[in-house]
Request: fold
Amino acid sequence: MRDFLTLCGYEADELAAELPRISKAFSKLGINSDDIARGKQRLVAYYDMTLKGVQKLFNFFLRDLVNLTLSREEGKEKLIYGCMAPSFDIIGSMLATNSHDVYVAEPNPVFLVVFGCIFDKIVPILEAAESRWLKGGVVGHCAMVKTRLGLYVLDLIPKPDLLVTSGSLCDASPKTNDLLEEFYGIPTYCYDTSHDGQLQDHPGSARAVNLLTHGIRGLTRKLGEMVGLAISDDMLWEILRVKVVLDTALARLYGIIQGSDPLVITPSHENLFMWVKQLPLDLEGLQRMIAAVNILSDELQERVDHGIGVVEKGAPRILAILPPNHADPRLEYLANEIGLAIVATDVGEASPVPGSATEAPDDPYLAMSLFLQSSLYSHLGERLSLILGACRRLKIDGVLDHYHVGCRSVAGDAFIIRDTVQKELGIPVLLLEWENFDPRVYNHEKYKTRLEVFKSMVKEAR
Amino acid sequence: MDEESLTVHLGNRPAVLRRAKANGTKIVGYLPGNYVPEELIYASGAVPVCLIDGPNPRRADNARSVLPHIICPFARTQVEEMSLKENPYYSLLDMVIAPITCQHLKKVAEVWEHYGEVEVFKLGIPHRYDGDFEKDYFLDRLVALKDTLEALTGNRVTDEKISHSIELYNKMRDLFRDISLMRSKVSSIPTAMDFITLNHASFQADPAFMVEFLVHLLDTLKNSPNSSKGSRGPRLLLTGPNLARGDYGILKSVERTRGEIVLEEFCEGIRYYWHRIQNTGDSLSSLASGYLRDKVPCAFMRSSARKRLDFILKLIKDFNVSGVIWYELLCCETYDQESYFFEQKLKEHNIPMLIVESNYDVSSLGQLETRLEAFIEVIEGGPENA
Reply:
């Protein structure tokens, strides 16, 4: 256990203090010595655990898992969870900073990273959900919402006092919450926008933003009443200012990775970068996160300076549509092994930086709505424009579109993205029908063959 | 005016629309779901046509070059119909109104927009439907729609025109309701097939003609010697997200059993007739209220499950229903989630429910009939493992 925790960024003095809590939490969650042994193996196999920055990033997820599991019994009076709720992290961080009786969490990424990527124990959670209203099979329910439901079915996390989601991307998440309220008595809140932007409304429509900010304001009002806190714009700006620093740090990290040749870190780490900034930590936690990202950036820069990489120099540069499988690092690791340099994803790259100083609106709620301009939340026309722009900017040789069937919105774009990229840029596109949160889709031989063929096509096209 | 007159009307309809279009009349299509106020289209002098055609497995499959299988077969059929333009209703369109309801139909709108096959007006439907802010959002979009229709047709859409239009469509809703309510009594006239095909006809026929036809039909049904006949077997409610024109396999399969569908409740494909649009005051505001929040919401709307269940339970009681068939298209994620909720809750009321999924594949109908027979047996108190 100690070796494992050290690998996950716990310092020696922290271990002494935290080990009893960690052991208690692991026991409640059913994490045993076999799991820990497997976890160590997977971490070393699929991630670069020699990098201090990577260890520290994993540490955030482990800590949050323990804190979440023990939150009720350790005296937190109110538990508030978010899932698939963009900008909830900002509100959550604000609450965590201003009220110590409240525990705010995003359980899904925590379990996907720890139970999924590290311990390979996510499947029982998915199966638990499938025994209820998110059945398996052709209907293709998203395993992100399955994870959420499965956690309650298996009683792995304490029930919250409020469960927040957004319909900004899909209807499955709000519907799941609707039924969680019916069957488990969990109060829920959903904020929405409307995707009725016409092509000429790029980069986004004011009315969609207004609808969204209306919903987010409703959320802060509700949360304020729940926790007895008068939530002010200043409280939100305090977090937004730190988030800008975090986003700037992440932008530096992404810049190093994207500019590196040879590619400096395996793309399986993208999962960590994407999720870690979603964790609703208090100000002190956010500062530690910024420090961790900067440590990693410094380590990677040193590698770049010494020409150290994880694929050969001159490897084909690939843009991935959608992030890696959030519960399974194998595909991105395989792509790396084959010699493809996945330098960016459309989610990370083809998006404005929320809350960035260059786009600072006066209203914090407007700042929190900037995610609508990102690839994932844009309508098809905008999304194509963002993806083509990213390909040109990053000098991409090929596109890997592993389209998540659980998300009708993004899956529906897959064929058109392929045709448009091929037509406009003349570069190959590999389409992989995929499930972004379910490790059961992975088929090593099939993907190896397809990626190898894709690599040949990309090299030939260059 | 008899059934043949409706058949003749519908048979002639494409040619009539072609002539009207040649004379400058605009043809405006809209996707189903009962969120697009036809009244507004009609008031503008354009001809409203609901794009409700399906199933055609070949069409749905052909659309897989554009949309993956995870998009529902109805949505894929719409994409292919618009691409092929062999269907006269799709080839005549000057504009399509796409309500942004579920992710599948949203994707249809985006695909049409991308390929530029038809001008698309996306009508945003706030999925939180009960707040004043959301109603104002929808009203704002209806104002924009009105402006767009005025620009398209060159006609001013006045309050008076909208009011007359509301009156006409309210009359249609009243007639459908009165006809439907006949089935709440012991008789099953009209049959489910008849009622559903009438509904589908109303989406493509001239509305004034349709109202006149329904008036005569109601009169005929009331005086029909068969109107006091009893049901032949268990009374069933058919419900789900979408029942497209031509998607009648389930109806024919039930007809071959002892069961009888006495009522249907669908988001898309059945005109919502359980309320009237208020026709006093601000007509656009009345349309916004009537179409967004004064009706039972579809499953993709927020916090809709309980409201929908309460409505279905009332229908079950009013129509003396003893079993529910939940008919959903494959990959419809919100309705599939709700099917579990409904099944569990209806069980508490001793109402058995059968879930049927369709990909418009006719080869599965044989298996369906076996399942239906077993379901009927369960309702009649037979073997429990249906």
Notes: The beta strands of chain A are 78-82, 102-105, 162-166, 188-191, 317-321, 341-345, 398-404, 429-434. The first helix of chain A runs from residue 2 to 7. Residues 353-358 of chain A have pLDDT under 50 and may be disordered. Chain A touches chain B through 51 residues (CB under 8 Å).
